[in-house]
Amino acid sequence: DQQVKQNSPSLSVQEGRISILNCDYTNSMFDYFLWYKKYPAEGPTFLISISSIKDKNEDGRFTVFLNKSAKHLSLHIVPSQPGDSAVYFCAASARGGGKLIFGQGTELSVKP
Amino acid sequence: GAVVSQHPSRVICKSGTSVKIECRSLDFQATTMFWYRQFPKQSLMLMATSNEGSKATYEQGVEKDKFLINHASLTLSTLTVTSAHPEDSSFYICSARDPGAGGGETQYFGPGTRLLVL
Question: Nearest CB to B102: which of A32, A36, A99?
Fold first, then answer.
């Protein structure tokens, strides 16, 4: 049972435009959500997170939105840059549980 | 963000040998570390949770006698792949939870170790 889903395996965006990566979850016990960026043969790099008590968190070009009723979160990157090209994973955890449950990842390609 | 190192970055070994991978949190103390495995084009699969001073908790389907985990200090966890076989070839990644970040829920990842068993 895939508790965290990223239904788009890939996304292509023009440089300067907005990238929107989506993530859905099924477990209502999840209360902390994270986005990671990963290059091949490297470990994931933490980007941004959001607690379930919020519906938006912003850090520079990155904004994460959380819609608890829809069990959906999204990562907005604006403006997109070629260096943003990577695989993006969303992850979720239930406070106190410690484990992160990852989605399958979305490969973002930002074209000049 | 917090820094987690992993050593070695790449290892090639013969079938039947054991390989030890180290994971260190460099600028924070981590009571909990995690070990993941990633196959090509797939997501990260949690193998086990490593707790300082106690036994590791393994995920279903992960052989604890094959993947030995030791969390000897608040900054070091080791994963030993015993009697490695070619099917153990994979990318192994550790993470450490920083208690001072994100309410203690944010995990920071090491750079990963590529294991190739011949």
Answer: A32
Q: Does an H or E element contain B36, and which?
A: strand B32-38
pLDDT at A30 over 90: yes
Give the mean pLDDT of chain A. 94
Please name the residue of chain A whose CA is at the shortest distance from the CA of residue B48.
A99
pLDDT at residue number A2: 81
For residues A1 and A108, what is the distance between their CA atoms, to the nearest angstrom?
A: 25
Strand extents, DSSP E, B18-82: 19-25, 32-38, 44-51, 57-58, 67-73, 76-81
| Structure confidence at residue B51 (pLDDT) | 86
The per-residue pLDDT for A96 is: 67
Distance from CA of B6 to the nearest CA of A (A): 10
